[in-house]
């Protein structure tokens, strides 16, 4: 819902070449309680101002020397990034109303001003504008929720799969390599059992931060769920780089964690699958890394294993 306070806090730009009109509208808006009102008498400056300030409403005079309101609207359509041009035109010519509406104006105000009507139109238009913004925020938040793990904020499996596909396509095009690192914490259940689930959550968040800090920005650190994390290492110049990265990751995770005033120790086991040696598709690479992780767990934990060689003939025949 949009509250009256939201509407009064919206940002407004007045564009009119006549100072008397600017002052009248400014005064009327301030008296009505609007707190963010700016103005310009130069129509050429509107686009740059809007780009910098993202106004919720632009009150635009249609008749101005040098550049009329119709030209300003054309320019605004080009510089508006989210596709909504929030213009309310001001005109003394009844014949211009329809042309203004078909040129992109959301509504119009007739001169001479009927102040009650002006206030009502501004209020209504701002309400629609803010609802539109709210809808955009909701859909962005939903999109983010669908692609991220709520506990750590890391990409989830769905986003990871997309990023791995891109990294593979990139490696294929550049005849370079990339790798998948599959991690599972060792004995994590014990933290939950001894310190409680909240402490377990805190540890998972600290692990996520350390993983992000250990790799490069172009790599993808994701949480699949529980104590399982997968890192997509993209644009590796050599397969050995994956081994250097895994050693760095294992060492970063093995440093003590301070949770609820206690020093907690935790280690991780890791399996690595390297493109194209251990798979040329996301699914096979993930499977190879998962199998290698199983080997790392089986042979003592707090270590890593590289996948066994990918058997292309067997895969093609299976
Ligand atoms: N705190 C917390 N615990 C979780 C979450 N999701 C899963 N778990 C717990 O994580 C534990 C994962 O256990 P496992 O990986 O099977 O066991 P482990 O103790 O790490 O054993 P190994 O992997 O063999 O070393 C289980 O006890 C789950 O209940 C979560 O979001 N928060």
From TrEMBL:
Modified-residue entries (4-aspartylphosphate), positions: 61
Ranges for domain Response regulatory: 11-126
Domain GGDEF: 176-309
Pfam families in the cross-refs: GGDEF, Response_reg
Protein's name in the database: Adenylate cyclase
Signal peptide annotation: none
Keywords for the protein's UniProt record, in alphabetical order: Phosphoprotein
Single GO molecular function: catalytic activity
GO biological-process terms attached to the record: phosphorelay signal transduction system
